[in-house]
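call fold target=XRE family transcriptional regulator
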Amino acid sequence: MKYTTSKQSTQEYKWEKYHSLNIFTGKRMSRFVAVEVDVAIGRKIQQRRKELGLTAENLAEQIGVSQQQFSRYERGATKINVAHLVNIAVILDTPISWFFADSKADNLTFSSQETYVPLRNDALKSRLDYHWAKLSNEQRRNLINFLDVMNK
């Protein structure tokens, strides 16, 4: 019996298990497919890579994987190897905890204690747009009021 990922909504994936047959032993094996956390980490990698103006091909080469494998990491189609994630964090000059910010897994919420500040203005704008989209109207008003006070 084989189960595949079922998409609940545009951004939410179920954690599912599927069975496959080991061709050497003939025994059934259980494997887990990509989950919401993998998709979120992939999006963060892609976001930061683009902020720094790096191509996917260039970053894939630097961490020693094919461009196809790197693409699967960014889409969340494959669980990322921890060593690769560490290398990506170093290359992108980003705390590794940032990749887990706002991710949820089994009722655990990861939040980044360390934050990075993008170096380029377009990267700063990208981060502002990212957070702005998540704010309620009241939070947006409060932020604008705060900025007005800061600029006086």
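return ok
The chain has three domains: 1-33, 35-116, 118-152. DSSP finds six helices and six strands in the chain.
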